[in-house]
């Protein structure tokens, strides 16, 4: 005895129509920058921006991470007149640094908040303290 289901002879029972964007879309650098810039606006939620662009939030977080490490550049044209940018650390009222580090000088490297501070013997302690405080403060405000 054969138990064969002849569904092919009866025709279709249900048809699914897939709408929306297809898979493996390609995003230009400008589109990525625009999406990332939208998520950096005050009170913006990544999930809402992703839903509006019909992409998953994880993709947007990946683009934001790439922008942070310099692989992608956020849009330079702000929508509300405020743009996100890096601010250089400037020490005011201090003496300029001494001669460049020689290859034989003893060097201590301090890695703090994504910054590397190289300290050579004879460095002014007050200057070093101020630089480390500035680096720590810049990381907590980001």
Account of the 3D structure:
There is one protein chain. A two-stranded antiparallel sheet has the order 1-2. The longest helix has 17 residues, at 125-141. It is elongated and about 90 Å long. It has 2 domains: 23-84, no CATH class; 86-142, no CATH class. The chain has helices at 7-10, 29-39, 46-53, 57-69, 125-141, and strands at 107-112, 115-120. It has 5 helices and 2 strands. With 142 residues, the chain is mainly alpha-helical.
SSE inventory with pairings:
Layout: H1 7-10, H2 29-39, H3 46-53, H4 57-69, E1 107-112, E2 115-120, H5 125-141
Antiparallel strand pairs: 1-2
Helix pairs in contact: 2-4, 3-4
Quick gist of this model?
By secondary structure, the protein is mainly α. It contains five helices and two strands, in the order ααααββα. α3 crosses α4.
Largest sheet: 2 strands, antiparallel
Domain count, please report it. Answer: 2
Low-confidence stretches: none
Pattern of helices and strands: HHHHEEH
Shape: elongated
Tally of individual helices: 5
Work out the strand percent. Answer: 5-15%
Query: Ends: how far apart?
Result: 73 Å
What is the strand tally? 2
Radius of gyration: 27 Å
Provide the descriptors you would attach to this structure in a database record.
mainly alpha; 37% helix; 142 residues; 2 strands
């Amino acid at each position: 005895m054969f138990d064969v289901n002849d569904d092919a002879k009866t025709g279709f029972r249900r048809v699914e129509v897939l709408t929306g964007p297809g898979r493996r879309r390609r995003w230009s650098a400008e589109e990525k920058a625009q999406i990332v810039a939208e998520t950096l606006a005050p009170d913006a939620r990544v999930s809402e921006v992703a839903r509006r662009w019909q992409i998953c939030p994880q993709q947007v977080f990946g683009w934001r991470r790439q922008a942070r490490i310099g692989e992608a550049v956020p849009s330079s044209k702000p929508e509300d007149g405020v743009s996100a940018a890096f601010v250089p650390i400037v020490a005011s009222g201090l003496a300029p640094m001494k001669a460049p580090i020689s290859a034989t000088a003893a060097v201590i490297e301090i890695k703090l908040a994504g910054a590397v501070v190289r300290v050579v013997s004879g460095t002014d302690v007050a200057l070093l303290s101020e630089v480390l405080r500035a680096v720590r403060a810049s990381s907590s405000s980001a």
